[in-house]
Design brief:
The chain has 429 residues and is an alpha/beta fold. The protein contains 17 helices and 14 strands. Strands 3-2-1-4-5-6-14 form a seven-stranded parallel sheet, with helices on both faces. Strand 4, helix 6 and strand 5 form a beta-alpha-beta unit. Helix 1 crosses helix 4 and helix 8 packs across helix 9. The C terminus is likely disordered. It folds into two domains: 220 residues, Rossmann fold, CATH 3.40.50.1480; 156 residues, NAD(P)-binding Rossmann-like Domain (Rossmann fold). Bound molecules: nicotinamide-adenine-dinucleotide (NAD). Nicotinamide-adenine-dinucleotide (NAD) binds next to helix 7, helix 8, helix 9 and helix 14.
Length: 429
């Protein structure tokens, strides 16, 4: 069976078009880039395969790539995040779309394979989010004979790509579009922070004020979730792995505790690390009855679902995104979105205004690669700080926010890299 979206129902296409209209209105930076490239069509010779959560915002990015002349094949690369109406609207415009909302992990993998194989001569460029396409391309090079380069936009994905580069496995250049101030420190913190809390509230209807809310992982995503949950009155407690991160969390005013202590009395637990098995059986044993469990990190692996199943006597679907697990010892815990990404399943993913910045970085990286990927060696390539600043300036202009131009001396410091306050500065996890 194929996961290609073919002949979508007209009502679904209409719904998708309406959703895209709403997102487009809130993505002025992408609109500006689109009007810059629509005349020259710099992607005319390119076949772009993408694997990024298929939301309305991703749809606006896909529209831009098509307007720039590319042939595009796309999949969401996740079990729960595909917005079927957006998939339908894009398919109706001739984009090759694979997948649907509510796939199993094996089905997600099949949709990825189909996306990679959508073009007769294979893709020339990959746009990835968690290395599913990059990994598939590395394991089956015969399917991508004309592949020139890729972009990757997740923290965990970039870590993996660097590892493959060190092992000499990476045969093409990959542009890291994650480690930019305008992505990592904006999208992950303010976008995912808000949409995660939004997802929890939509899924459960819970009052956050006064609740003990445990955030596991205090990177850019965890920090955003912790700040937003605290803003709504929750008593936020943070669990960290790295000492540096723990210092940042403590100085931001959050109690930092090891999981076994943090989980005692927890009302809500949210994982945000990018690593598997962050909550395992021993952690589940420490939870009080009635706790809500969810994940906003990477895919469905952060909460060990096998350990949860082992302790479960019975499950009940009590709300659309809430599965109640009644445990052998009589307690119950409520798992949201099957342990998948709560913000993309129960809410709509990150707000369009934030994805405007993230996808502007992605679109500009694809345009750069189309113009000159042959000058890049296989390996991981960083986006220059000046580009990061350029995207921020475009966003500021769209928000009608003005700042002073730096003096020539200040500009020299800003562009020197590594100096505190320079464009090379980032705060690190
Ligand atoms: N839901 C979304 O829409 C969305 C958006 C952006 C990023 N992400 C994903 O969220 C994850 C985190 O992203 P980030 O930018 O915050 O990464 P990050 O590297 O800034 O932070 C991850 C943090 O988790 C910590 N950590 C790892 N294992 C831990 C453990 N067992 N217990 C406690 N802490 C642990 C690390 O030390 C690190 O500080 C990534 O997988 C990323 O791809 C999701």
């Amino acid at each position: 069976m194929s996961f290609r979206v073919t002949r979508p129902p007209a009502e679904l296409v209409e719904l998708g078009r309406a959703a895209l209209d709403v997102a487009r209105d809130q993505m002025p930076v992408l609109a500006g880039i689109r009007s810059e490239v629509a005349g020259t069509r710099p992607l005319q010779a390119q076949r772009v395969a993408g694997c990024v959560h298929l939301t309305k915002e991703t749809g606006v990015l896909v529209e831009l790539l098509v307007a720039a002349g590319a042939e595009v094949a796309w999949t969401g690369g996740d079990e729960v995040s595909t917005q079927d109406e957006v998939a339908a609207a894009l398919a109706a415009e001739g984009v090759e779309v694979f997948g649907r909302r509510g796939m199993t992990t094996a089905e997600v993998e099949q949709a990825v394979t189909e996306t990679l194989g959508a073009f007769q001569d294979g893709p020339t460029l990959l746009v990835d989010n968690g290395t599913r396409l990059i990994e598939a391309a590395l394991s089956a090079p015969g399917t991508v004979p004309r592949l020139v380069a890729a972009t990757e936009k997740t923290t965990e994905g970039c870590r993996r790509v660097r590892e493959w580069a060190e092992q000499g496995r990476l045969r093409f250049p990959v542009v890291n579009v994650n480690d930019l101030v305008t992505k990592w420190e904006v999208d992950n913190t303010y976008g995912t922070g808000q949409s995660t809390v939004d997802g929890i509230v939509r899924a459960t209807g819970v009052l956050l004020a006064g609740k003990r809310f445990v955030v596991v992982g205090f990177g850019q995503v965890g920090r955003g979730v912790a700040l937003r949950a605290r803003g709504m009155g929750a008593r936020v407690v943070v669990c960290c792995r790295s000492a540096r991160t723990a210092v940042r969390a403590r100085l931001a005013g959050f109690p930092v505790l090891p999981p076994h202590e943090a989980l005692v009395g927890a009302d809500i637990v949210c994982t945000a690390t990018g690593y598997p098995d962050v909550l395992t059986g021993e952690h589940l044993d420490a939870l009080p009855g009635g706790a809500v469990l969810c994940n906003t990190g990477h895919s469905v692996t952060e909460i060990n679902l096998a350990d949860l199943a082992e302790r479960t006597r019975e499950t009940k679907r009590i709300r659309p995104h809430v599965q109640r697990h009644i445990l052998h010892d009589g307690r119950h815990v409520d798992l949201l979105s099957g342990g998948g990404l709560i913000n993309l399943d129960a809410a709509e993913g990150n707000p369009s205004e934030v994805m405007d910045i993230t996808f502007a970085n992605q679109a500009l990286a694809v345009l750069d690669l189309a113009a000159g990927a042959d000058r890049l060696a296989p390996g991981v390539h960083e986006v220059p700080a000046e580009r990061d600043e350029d995207v921020a300036r475009r966003k500021l202009a769209a928000m009608a926010v003005r700042i002073d131009a730096p003096t020539p001396e200040q500009l020299e410091v800003l562009t020197s890299g590594g100096h505190p306050g320079s464009l090379g500065e980032r705060s690190g996890p």
